[in-house]
Structure formats: structure tokens, C-alpha cells
Amino acid sequence: MTALLQTIDLNKRFGGLRVTNNVNFELDEGEVHCLIGPNGAGKSTLFRLFLGEHSPSSGRILYAGEDITHLKPFQRIRKGISVKFQVPGIFAALSVRQNLTIALQHHLEGASLDEEIARLLEFLRLTASADMQAASLSHGQKQWLEIGMAISLKPRLLLLDEPTAGMSPDETYETGEMVRALNADGVTVLAVEHDMAFVRQIAQRVTVLHFGQIFAQGTVAEITANDAVAEIYFGHVDHDD
Amino acid sequence: MLAKANKLLNGPQTIGRGPAFWTGFVIVVLAAAAYPSFTDGWTVGNTVYFFNWIFMALGLSLIWGYGGALSFGQTAFFGLAGYAYGILTLNYGSDYGFTILAVVIAVAISAVFAAVLGYFLFFGRISGVFLGIVTLSVTLVFERFMAQTAGPEWRIGDARLNGFNGMTGMPPLTIPWFGGDIVLFPDVQLYYVILALLVVVYLGLRILVNSRFGNVLVAIRENPERAEMLGYDVRKYQLIAFIIGSSLAGLSGVLYTSWGQYITPSSMGLTAAALPVVWVAVGGRSDLTATLVGTFAVLSVFQTLTIYGSQYALVVMGALLVVVVLFAPQGLIPGIAGLSRRLRGAR
Question: What start and end residues bound the annotated signal peptide (chain A) (predicted)?
Fold first, then answer.
């Protein structure tokens, strides 16, 4: 397998604080990969470096073999990266349909646009809410709408920042199924996530960040069996299973 | 083609859709067209004065109401184009329809200036209150500069800039015609020209805000980060909206100058700069129709107050803005629409 996203000696400092510390990370094409770690481990910063919202202090970021370190966020999006933020990033005053239209109008118009909107609404379980103002959706529905907008771009790589934050267990499970369906269609997924049940549901590989460095990497089973990981998460090793 | 235009005229970014709205629209336009037959020349000319300002208000609605970028200095473009029209026509006269060319050149000058200023603003990622401060500063700098041009050395060709006394004597708009030019003094003929221009600009902007461009513009207003993360270069869209809106401010400036054959630095001063913001906020900034109707209504009320209440007019205008911001933050017309919806829903 070839790496779709790769960082080489990536560093990010805020003043004296090294939030990303020599990270050499590889994301394989076609996988669902979760990024976990305690609060302050540097997950969000790494995410923003991938998106171009932060620029690194040193090091490089490669996407599909191309150096994207200095590209602006919208230029990275146009190369096939898409993102869903932690706080639902939707256009609140506009209708659900308008939200999706704005995401889809890059490559569709007229009847094929309407068809794709209908298909997406179905996939997102939002058909009944199509003409409602996005602000009036439930929290979980807003998250789904944003996932819908993110996948409207037909991304090769989908970045998810805590996609299930604030969701009920049922909504979380449904979201997991959406992610698996997308992955089955060939989308590579990188998710920052806290919820270990969700990680078990979707992830093929997991990377643990700690103090801005890669602390451990492996399958979900390997990571959950890793005493050192439990140590940084809970401060002690708990062998009750 | 026609179906597409129809769809864009009735898109989601404009309130007022469907047969009922367009029937009302036709009635209003016909009534406006018949209006001069029922009143005197002075009133008609005065109505043109109101129309002149609406272009600037529509432009601000596009930049602020749709694009989410509050420019407090649209009067800079108003004044720039107004003075440009004066300088051009005082030097080259009005023969062979030159005034029309002067309008085009003056508006183009304001567009170019908007492109340069907007480039630094938007590509410099200046937003929110700072955008308002910078644009206000620009218009105040223009005002101060023009105010000190009273001396005879401040002239461009035959055009004296004339400091605070203002520039006068430029010709009104003239249309070249067989058997002699038509001179558009503030009367019935000018009224029809400006009314037609207003209808064209209004419909054109309706199409623009409901187009793919307009979709992105409101997306940026709602959530610029999300818009960028859908692959849109936010800065470019904001810049284009700023150029179009500022060109309309320039158009207002030219029309005002040719209407009164007069422009002064105070047209770019603090009070002047605040007024378009008031009109657009009071009417309803995020809709073109609300802006148009609101601006016309506020201007009419303001003038009536000025005639009967003289110095209290500005105080009342300020109070009106405060009341609207408190009770109908989206503007009077969307506020009334929302209230009537709620009343109907309550029954």
C-alpha cells in the first residue's frame, strides 16, 4: 500500500510549547484510521496542520506523494481532502437543501444536482428535513448534515474531528455505519475520536498521540491491550478483563 | 435560458417569490411609471434624488447583508466617482454623449479603487469590526483631503476642486439624439432613465445573489471556515462582492453629482458614511427587496423630518436605528414578515 497522507519530521511550536513534536505519520490509502490521545496530546493541532489552518514550524506534509505543506486550505480541499469539524460547521440560516447545494455545486447542476441532493438526504436520514432551516436540526442531525457536505465533494480523504461529539449512543452507531459505508466506497478516513466504542466500530488502525509525539500505533486490539497506553490515559493499568 | 433566469430570480436568497410577488412588482413599477403624470416636476426630481441613493444601499446589502462584511466607507466610492465625473465633464464637456462615457469611466475608477483596497482588506484577512474601521478611515481620509483643496492650485485641468465649498458646474447627463441632445435635468426624463436603471440593477442583483456565486457569498456570511473547507477561495468571493457593491456606490455618486451638478467633501464625511448603514440595517440588510423598499422609505421620512423638524431629523434617525436593532435585528421588513407569519401561525 502507498501512503495517501504522510508527514515528515513535522513540528509545530506555539511560543516555547512544542505541540507537534517530530511527527512521522503515514496514512494508507483505503484505510479507516483513528487518532486518539489524552487531552492536550496535540490531536487537534495535527489535524489543523493537515488542513492548512496552521502552518508547521518545520517539516513537510505530503498528500498522494505531492508536497502540500504550503498550500492554502481551499487548495487542499480541491485536491480531494474533505473535513468535518468537531462543532457542526453548517450554514445555520440556510435550509438543509441549500447547505448541500453549496457543497455540490462545484461539479453538479440542474436535474443531476437535485438527484444527488435527494440521494444524500436519504443517506443522511434527513429527507423529511430538507426544507428546514439548518439551525433547527437536532445536534446529531447537524453533525450528519456536515458529514453530508464533506462527502459531497467526493473526497479521496475524509478527515473527521470527533464526528460523534455530543451524539447519543444510537446516533454514534449510525454515524459509524455511515463511515463504514463511505470506506467501502473507497474513501480513506482519518478520525480524531474519544469514544472507544466508536473507534472499535470503525478503525482498522489506531495512532496514539501523547505530548505531541506518536506514542503507539497498531490495530484496535493491539492498542487496547497496550499497558503503556492505558497508563497515559488513566494514570494506571487496569486489568479487570 | 428563460427558465434558468426565472429560477434565479426566484431563488432562496431573496424573499418575495411566485406570482403574487411578481404581480405586486409589476404594479409597483407601473405605478412608478405613471407617477410623474400625477405630480409636479420638482417632486419628480426629488424622487430621482431618492432613487440615486438606492444603488449604494443595494451595493451595501450585497457586501454586508449577503457577504457578511460590514463596510462603513461606501461613501469613499460615492465621492470618488462623483468627483471623477465632475473632473471629466468640466474638462471635456457634455457633447457627443460624453457624460455617459464619463459615468462609465467614473464608475470604473471606483471599481478599480475597490479592487485595490479590497485586495488588501480581504487577502489581508481583515474582517469584522476592523473592516468597518479601515473602510471608515478611508472615506474620512478622502473627506479631509478634499476639504483642504480650496486654493486655486488644487485644480485638474479646468476643474477646481474647491475644498469644502464643493465642486460645481458639471453638466447633467445628456443623451445624444437626432436633432439635438436630450439633457436630463432632474425632471421626468431623468426620472424614467433612473427608474429603468434601478429596475435593471435590482433584477440583475437578484439573479446574482441566487446564482452559484450568491450561494457561496451567503455561505461565507454564515460560516467562512466551512465555506473555505468546501474548496472556495473565500477572499476572492468577498473581493468580487466588494467591487460590485462599491461600483454601485460609485454609480450613486455619479448620479447624485450629475443630478445636483454639485458635490462636496461632506458627502464622504462621518454622517454621510453612517447613513447607508442605517438605511440598509433599518430596511433589512440580507434581502435586496427589503433594502430597496427600506431605503426609499427611510429617505422619504428623513426628508419630511428635515423639512418639518430640521435639526431633529438626525436624532430621530439615530433613534430609529437603535429601535430597529433592538426589536427587529434583521431589519424592519423581515421583522414585519416574521411577525405576520407568527400571528398567522398563532391563529
Answer: none
Say whether residue B234 is in contact with chain A using an 8 A CB cutoff: yes
Residues in B closer than 8 angstroms to A74, CB to CB, are: 228-229, 231-234
Length of chain B, in residues = 347
Nearest chain B residue (CA) to A82: B229
Task: Determine, for residues B229 and A83 on separate chains, whether the beta-carbon distance falls below 8 Å.
Answer: yes
ipTM above 0.95, yes or no: no
CA distance A139 to chain B (A): 17
CA distance A64 to B142: 51
Q: Do B229 and A94 touch (CB under 8 A)?
A: no
3-state secondary structure string across chain A: CCEEEEEEEEEEEECCEEEEEEECCEEECCCEEEEECCCCCCHHHHHHHHHCCCCCCEEEEEECCEECCCCCHHHHHHCCEEEECCCCCCCCCCEHHHHHHHHHCCCCCHHHHHHHHHHHHHHCCCHHHCCCEHHHCCHHHHHHHHHHHHHHCCCCEEEEECCCCCCCHHHHHHHHHHHHHHHHCCCEEEEECCCHHHHHHHCCEEEEEECCEEEEEECHHHHHCCHHHHHHHHCCCCCCC
**Over the stretch A11-25, which tens digit does the pLDDT of each residue have?**
999 988 888 888 999
Does any domain span residue B57?
Answer: yes
CB contact under 8 A, B215 and A153: no
Q: Which residue of A has its CA nearest to B220?
A: A91
Is B273 inside a domain boundary?
no
- Please report the domains of chain A, with CATH numbers, ordered by start residue: 3-234 (3.40.50.300)
Residue B290 located in a structural domain: no
Q: Which of A51, A77, A98 sits opposite B230 (nearest CB)?
A: A77
Residue A222: other Cβ atoms inside 10 A: 13
A153 to chain B: which residues are within 8 Å by CB? 230-231
Q: Give residue-wise pLDDT tens across range B83-130.
A: 999 999 999 988 888 999 999 999 999 999 999 999 999 999 898 899
